[in-house]
Each structure stands twice: as C-alpha cells, then as structure tokens.
Amino acid sequence: MGLRRRAFQIHLLASASVLLLVLGALYAGWYRWPGWYLTGASHLAAIMVGVDVALGPLLTLLIANPRKPRAELQRDIAMIVAMQLLALGYGSATLWRGRPLYYAFSVNMLQLVQASDLDPPEARFAIRAELPLAPRWDSLPRWIWAPLPKDPKVRAGIVQAAITGGFDVTSMPPYFKPWNQGYGALRARLKRVRDLRFFSAAQIAALVRRMRRARIATDRANSLPLMGRGPPLLAVFDPVTLRLLALLRCT
Fold first, then answer.
1. DSSP state letters, 164-215
2. Among 60-64, 124-128, 149-153, where is mean pLDDT lowest?
3. Within 13 Å of residue 11, how many CA atoms lie on the same side as its CB?
4. What is the pLDDT of residues 24-46, one digit of tens each?
5. pLDDT at 144 over 90
6. Residue 93, Cβ density class (10 Å: 0-12 exposed, 13-18 middle, ≥19 buried)
7. How do the domains of the chain map onto residue ranges?
8. What backbone phi and psi angles, to 5 degrees, belong to 89?
9. What is the pLDDT of residues 80-122, one digit of tens each?
C-alpha cells in the first residue's frame, strides 16, 4: 500500500500544481472579474479539474501495484499522464481562444468580446495597420467604445450582417475607439435599473437590493447591462463622472 499511496500523492501534487499554474496564469491575465463569470469558463475548468486532478491520480492509485513489473508500471503511468496532457492541452487552448479581450460599449449595451468573437480579416487588418486597439497575443482586456461607422452603406451592411448572424461592429477592431471618447454616447444610454428590459422582474428586484446594500442610487439613470456567454451583469456608473461603480449579478 506504501507504493500506491506514494504514487497517488506524487501524481496528485504534480497534476494540481500544473493545472493551478495554467489556470492561474489565464485568470491573472485575462479572466479576472468579470471575465470568468461572463464567459462561463467555470464549466470547462471543472472538467479540467476532474480529469487532471481527480481522474488521473485515482487511476494511478488503482494501477500502482507493487507486484507489477517496473517497466509495465511506467508504461501505464505514462499512458495516464498522456491522457491528462491531452485534456489539459484541449482545455487550455479552448480557454485561450475564448479569452476576454474587450469590454465594449456599442449602441445601447455593454458587451464582452472574446478572442473567438473577432472577425479574423478585420483583426488582421488592425494588427497590420498597428492600430492602438488592435488585438495581439499579449493584449489584456480593455474597455473600449465600438460605434457604428458613419458611412450609411457600411453601417447598414454591418447591421444587416449582425441581424443574420454575422459579425457585429464589436467584432471589428478597426472601428474601436478609446473608452473615454464614448462618454457622451454612454451617458445618453444610461437608464434606471427598473427601466432595463434585459432583466426579468425577479432579477431587477435582486439588483435593486444589491444596489441598496452597496449604497448606490436606484432612482437615477446610471445602469446598463453587460452581456456575455453567461447571465448578464448590471454595470452601474456614476452618471456625472462615468466612473464604474459596480458590476452586479442578477441572480
């Protein structure tokens, strides 16, 4: 039993350390609040933990028979580790492709923009043109304004594409502008939380309670929904300075 316990403990420690390093780097760089929540990444992370930290070491515990020849034991453990590495590589690549790159205000809402959401030709053009808000491999999440272009034909084309399931302006980095340049448009779109139609009555009631606990006014036009893959958040701003005051869950 000594060999089984020792092999299990070593495998568990190594697996947990590698997974913690990978998830920690992704979280610290790209998935900090509200990224992890809005992307729904916890589901994939749970699968990675199940395979790499639970299943792998448990299989080692089962096959680490002290009567088994050393070469056979090494082969079996190598197969388990290979399975873990495949799962870790798939999960890490998926999280990398879905990493948050922008929190964009466009038209009448705030929206999370992940790396996988970007229109590839538009993103490549922005990179080649060395635009300040172009996405790069080391780009960290930024708050930006994504207004529709002024040209009526281009504008209509983007709107039509978005309606039919194509790329919206929030997927086109050449149209991105610095966050503070959108202050006027943002201020004009802020609403009272009770006037927002993105939330159900129960969700609005919960948001009002959270705003009151945070001592934020509930009767002022200071709110917008922040949309992502998961449930939306309520973004609350100071209506004068437009400083972000809170990001509140609706559930």
1. TTS--GGG-GGG-EEGGGGHHHHHHH-B-GGG-SSS-HHHHHHHHHHHHHTT
2. 60-64
3. 29
4. 999 999 999 999 999 999 999 99
5. yes
6. exposed
7. 2-97, 100-182, 190-251
8. -65, -45
9. 999 999 999 999 999 999 999 999 999 888 999 999 999 999 9
Strands 233-237 and 244-249: antiparallel
* Residue 71 in tokens: 């070469």
Give the pairing of strands 109-114 and 223-227: parallel
Helix (H/G/I), strand (E/B), else coil: 119: coil
Facing residues of 100 across strands? 114
What beta strand segments (E) does 22-108 contain?
Answer: 100-106
Q: Read off the pLDDT of each residue in 13-30 and give the average, rounded to a whole number.
A: 94
The reported pTM is: 0.89
Query: Which residue's structure tokens are 């809170």?
Result: 246
* Token pair listed for 164: 């039919």
